[in-house]
Amino acid sequence: MAVSPVAVGSRPSRVVLLAVVCLGQFMVLLDNTIVGAALPDMQHRLHTQLTGLQWIVDAYVLLVAMLLLSGGVFADRFGRKRVYLAGGAVFTVASLLCALAPSLGWLIAGRVLQGIGAAALSPASLALLAAAHPVPQERMKAIGLWAGISGLGLAVGPVAGGVLTDAFGWPAIFLVNLPIGVVLLLIGLRTLDESRNPSAPAIDVPGTALSVLGVGVLTYGLIEGGARGWTAPVILGSFAAGVILLAAFVAVEARRSAPMLPLRLFRQRLFTVSNTAMVVVGFALMGSSFFFSQFFVYVQGSSILRAGLQTLPLSLGMVIVSPYAGRLAARYGFRVVVTVGLALAGLGLLALGTVHADTGYGNVWWRLGVVGVGFALTMSPLTGAAIQAVSPQEGGLASGISSTTRQIGAVLGVALLGAVVRARQSGGASFEAGLNDAFLAAGAITLATAVFTGLWLARSRPVEGSATPRRATDPVAVGAPNEASTHGS
């Protein structure tokens, strides 16, 4: 028997629902930042090199990036409660597997499972919230609370990672997910109402498979190229296979009636420019964040606990400024706010590229803060710009694509900036010199993108056959999705 698309409960039940969905998203976002604090301890205890650390991060982000859109469709088609709880269960079990992993290979396998769980849990959490709040004004308030409360995971992650790793070792950063996951499942089973969209499109299995394989083999080539040699047959083969698989993905998507990624959306300049910039945001933010804790531990000699605290200005800058980014975009326009944000982030990364072992923390923390503030000014407006470029019915899809492009950028950032560091070390330079070059490269690319958005991030015509894009003053158009089918962590 089909369940109605919207299940609306009483106000107390909505409060419980908000708490449950925020708990799940909090767990996902916590995992994004808590792992970075533990990377030095993982390297020591697992006897791995930089390549191994890259896989620990990218194995998770890759699966989230490639399955996020499908996760939203799954939730709409098969039941948002069912998919949300299934994602939470997979994420919790995967966290236990990570904590008990006896080797790097088992840890990477656990991270893959975590990514699958997060790709189901994250979009389903927002889908449940939107289904319970059919009135747009109430929905926007609920989404704002969801973003703010769950976003605390970003700020808590570095500190929690430093404390837990320093006291108990790196497995503790995954064990902390177990009580959260158990509470989520117990309360969710009893309190959440099921809802689904009977008219949701079918799952794009070929598109999903080709995207995972294509980006996966390219990531393999980028990460392993530094260790195996860029001209090694397996590396050249992986690049060739990646190009072929992604070309096949484009060909398949162009022919499907209900593709995972509608290529027609990229005919709109606003949509294309905003998503291109979002790739760079993910690239520079995640790629540089991957090295922050390692910089403080290996270059400046900090303890893991202290390093976790030292990276906090970045997260705090993002958490504090993010709620205001949409309002600023509504007042001054997407182009101004995004360009200023990218310029700030780029300058902050360039400033980090000049930090050395003897640089006092008083001259470091503000650079991290500038990077955090800059990127906080970009993400919500870029998502809003993507939503404005499409019809109102495709707002959720546009939001999901925006989150996906950011995650793809994150995968590439960890891989490519890691390759920069390895290349410098292979040439006889120190780890510190490699990090400086990585930060400088990320800053230069971010500044170049600021110029790009300053020139090209402007309103485009509506997609053919669709409604007029939303006004910039529409709260949905400045960063919060109006559909709950797809949204990333």
Keyphrases for this structure?
single chain, 489 residues, mainly alpha, Growth Hormone, Chain: A, 3 domains, 17 helices, 0% strand, disordered N terminus, disordered C terminus
Which SSEs are present, and which pair or pack?
Layout: H1 11-45, H2 50-78, H3 80-100, H4 104-132, H5 136-150, H6 152-168, H7 172-175, H8 177-191, H9 205-228, H10 233-255, H11 269-299, H12 304-310, H13 312-332, H14 334-352, H15 365-388, H16 395-426, H17 431-456
Largest sheet entry:
none
First-to-last CA distance: 32 Å
CATH topology (fold) name of the largest domain = Growth Hormone, Chain: A
Query: What is the total domain count?
Result: 3
Q: What's the CATH class of the largest domain, please?
A: Mainly Alpha
Rg from Cα: 21 Å
Which consecutive residue ranges, at least 5 long each, have pLDDT under 50? 1-9, 462-489
How much helix, percentage-wise, in residues? over 70%
Q: How many helices in DSSP terms? A: 17
Can you put this structure into words, describing what you see?
The chain is mainly alpha-helical and 489 residues long. It is built from 17 helices and no strands. The two termini are 32 Å apart. Residues 1-9 and 462-489 have low confidence and may be disordered.
Task: Give a short synopsis of this structure.
The protein is mostly helical and 489 residues long. The protein has helices at 11-45, 50-78, 80-100, 104-132, 136-150, 152-168, 172-175, 177-191, 205-228, 233-255, 269-299, 304-310, 312-332, 334-352, 365-388, 395-426, 431-456. 76% of the residues lie in helices and 0% in strands.
